[in-house]
């Protein structure tokens, strides 16, 4: 479930790229908090504590501004393309007892039957859950599953209080038969043979075009004579 991390923020009065760079140089992160019909509040968050808190997906945050506390979730986290730093955070205000819609990671556990391949078609599911108890992930067991087994979103067990938003017919896990080494070699050999045939056909076509071109030239010379 989501941890409730407390971050002491400061209100911002200066805006723009220059002001944001100044905040980041001081080791902090520019952010904006909005929601529930309130006016957006521009704030500065403590850099290290915020980065640690946002390592967990859907972390519930308590933002303290001028001594007053407000629950919030990170809606958008803009990260630097090169450096391991956060450039800006959009926070959405939430309240105790309120349900929110979030994407929750799918975690596979167990080993499927021998000679099978397990494919995770959906690495996350969208669920609705109380803001104060968002699941960190949902666990799907593939223990002993045979080839041909499929697990749909509607069959995934969700934590108490959470409901599925993703289409229940969406394929989450697909278990297929693993290809044997012999079959793989046969496929590769067939592919190589196909390439050789194509190259041979192309060479033959080029040779034929060359012969036709020579014939046309000879005919043209004969007509001129």
Concise summary:
This protein is an alpha+beta fold.
Task: Give a structural overview.
There is one protein chain. The chain has 3 helices and 13 strands, in the order βαββαββββββββββα. By secondary structure, it is α+β, with helices and mostly antiparallel strands. It folds into 3 domains: 4-95, Beta Barrel (Ribosomal Protein L25, Chain P), CATH 2.40.240.10; 100-177, Beta Complex (RNA Polymerase Alpha Subunit, Chain A, domain 2); 179-225. The strands form 3 sheets. A 6-stranded mixed beta barrel has the order 1-3-2-6-5-4. The longest helix is centred in the C-terminal third of the chain and has 44 residues, at 181-224. The relative contact order is 0.12. The mean pLDDT is 86. Residues 7-91 form the Large ribosomal subunit protein bL25 L25 domain. Residues 99-177 form the Large ribosomal subunit protein bL25 beta domain.
Question: Which shape, going by the Cα principal axes?
Answer: flat
Strand arrangement in the largest pleated sheet: 1-3-2-6-5-4
If you average the pLDDT, what whole number results?
86
Low-confidence stretches: none
Number of strands: 13
Name of the CATH homologous superfamily of the largest domain: Ribosomal Protein L25, Chain P
Q: Report strand %.
A: 35-45%
The Rg value, from CA coordinates, equals 30 Å
| Helix and strand pattern | EHEEHEEEEEEEEEEH
CATH topology group of the largest domain: Ribosomal Protein L25, Chain P
Family: Belongs to the bacterial ribosomal protein bL25 family. CTC subfamily.
GO molecular function, one term: 5S rRNA binding
InterPro entries: Rbsml_bL25/Gln-tRNA_synth_N, Ribosomal_bL25/Gln-tRNA_synth, Ribosomal_bL25_b-dom, Ribosomal_bL25_C, Ribosomal_bL25_long, Ribosomal_L25_dom, Ribosomal_uL5_bac-type
Subunit structure: Part of the 50S ribosomal subunit; part of the 5S rRNA/L5/L18/L25 subcomplex. Contacts the 5S rRNA. Binds to the 5S rRNA independently of L5 and L18.
